[in-house]
Amino acid sequence: MEILEIRNVKKYYGKNDNLVKALDDVSFKIGKGEFVAIVGQSGSGKSTLLNLIGGLDKPTSGSIIINGKEISGFSPKKQTEFRRKNIGFIFQNYSLMPELCVYDNVALPVSIDRSQKTDHEYIKRILTDLGIWEKRKKLPHQLSGGQQQRTAIARALANKPAIILADEPTGNLDSGTTMDVMELLKNSCKEYSQTMIMVTHNDMLAASCDRILSILDGKIERGY
Ligand SMILES: Nc1ncnc2c1ncn2[C@@H]1O[C@H](COP(=O)(O)OP(=O)(O)O)[C@@H](O)[C@H]1O
Ligand SMILES: [Mg+2]
What's the pLDDT tens digit per position in 15-24? Predict the structure, then answer.
C-alpha cells in the first residue's frame, strides 16, 4: 500500500529571467514503511521536495497525495493540524525553540496536540537512546551541534508520526553516532510502521536504505 504519491509536481520560484525550476515535473510513489534516501547535489531540489511533502509550502502545480488525501488542497489550518498529527520533520537547521529546554522542545509536538497525552516514558526512552537524557534541562544554545541535531531527531519521533521527513539528519554527527542514530531511526520505523524520507549526502547511508531517489536539476534522475 502506498502512503505517498507525488504526481507531476512542479515548484517554480521567481519569474522571467529569475525563474528557478526547483522541481520540474516530478512523479513517484512511496509505500508504507519504506525507508527512502533522497540524494542529489546542492540546489537540485531536495529540501523543496521535503517542504512540499510536509505541507510547509505548496507546489506550483501537480498533486501530493498522502494516505489518499490531496494535501495541497488543505486550508492552512487543516494543513497545520495534518502535519502535526502525521509528519515528523527533522530540519537541516534543527529549528529548535531557543527558550525551551531539550525536554520541552521534544515534548512540544505532543503537548500542543490536545488529543494526545505526553508519553513521558517514551520521550525518556528516545532521549536516552540518543544519549541526551542527561541534557534534558539544557537550552539549545548550551548544546553542541550534534546534541542539537539529536534533540531535533527526538522531537520528530515524539508523537510517532506516520511519515518522517529528514533533511540530512546526521550531517553534524561523527560516524559512530551517525550509525547509532540510523539504527534508532530504522528501529522506530519498524516498531511503528513509519515511512522515512531522508535527504543524505552520505553514500553509505543511502545504500543502507530500501530505496534511493536521485534528483538532478529538479527532476528524478533515477530511482529504484
Ligand atoms: N524560497 C526560494 N526562493 C527562490 N529560490 C529558491 C527558494 N528555495 C529554493 N530555491 C532554489 O530552488 C533550487 C532548489 O533548492 P533546494 O530545494 O534548497 O535544493 P537542495 O536542498 O537540493 O540543495 C535552488 O536553485 C534554490 O536556489
Ligand atoms: Mg537542502
Answer: 999 999 999 9
Residue nearest to atom 1 of ligand 1 (CA): 13
Counting atoms of ligand 1 from 1, which one is nearest the CA of 215? 22
Q: What is the pLDDT of residues 173-199, one digit of tens each?
A: 899 989 988 999 999 999 999 999 999
Pocket test for ligand 1, best of 48, 49, 57 (most atoms within 8 A of CB): 48
94 phi, psi to nearest 5 deg? 70, -45
pLDDT band at 112 (very low <50, low <70, confident <90, very high): confident
* pLDDT the model gives residue 222: 73
The per-type count for the chain, helices as H runs and strands as E runs, is 7, 10
pTM reported for the whole predicted model: 0.93
Task: Please enumerate in sequence order all residues whose Cβ is within 8 A of that of 207, keeping only pairs 6 or more positions apart, or say none.
Answer: none
**Which atom of ligand 1 is nearest to 44's Cα?**
22
Pairwise CA distance, residues 197 & 36, whole Å: 5
Q: What distance in Å separates the CA atoms of residue 212 and residue 9, rounded to the nearest whole number?
A: 19
Identify the structural domains of the chain with CATH numbers, from first to last: 2-223 (3.40.50.300)
